[in-house]
Amino acid sequence: MTARKILVPLTAMLVFLLLWEALVWVMGWPNFKMASPSDLWPAYQKYWELFLIMGWQTLWRTVLGLLLAVVFGIGLGMVMGFSRTMRDALYPLLVGFNAVPKATVVPIVALMFVGWHDFNTVLIAFMISFFPIAVSVSIGLSTLEPEYRDILRSLGASQSTIFWKIALPKTLPEFFGALKVSVTLAFIGTNLMEIVSPHGRGLGALFDSGKTNSDYPLMFAVLIALAFLGIVLYYIVVALEKTFAGWADRGVGA
Fold it and tell me: What would the mean pLDDT of 159-188 be, rounded to a whole number?
């Protein structure tokens, strides 16, 4: 089973790259119009130091923004999950905030905190990724069966005991599902700021440099590097999910 879980996605990625290469070859596109996978390796060889430096800067800002989103999202979700009044009050605000395209917020934040590149990059990663976490935790807690609470209360359980024994385990599957979504959203926020900010650093700034110089192989190499980092973080979340909420996996047929 483990070998299958590794081979299937690797095969899918290989097929994708082969189809991409074939498309560029059939269409006869030059690399200044559409880079092919075979154009990417020279770009990695030429700029490998920049990829390591910029990739690390993108990664740590994304992870920090995601961690802040987890802490804030769980706290906000608990408030809305345990209080119908707070849920009714906060949901419209959250939905409205999430409906605003973050690409329009990025320039505002960049201008508000000029020179604070690390701060505004982490801030955007946080802003764009906390919403799914807060909503999933809120839904998980608000849909907790009242029978469980009544039984535990009749046995003398405190509110904290009910949370740790019943509410928290029930919420974990929804939480990890939202966290998988938030991982990709955090990367989007980080790279939007890296591209827009005049003092941008990271893979987004490297992409912008490739765009300025019409270096399409570099631009596509950055996109593949971002995809790789996103996949790595995604599977880290999957591993955490199996550790803490593996009991919720019912399994499906092949």
Answer: 83
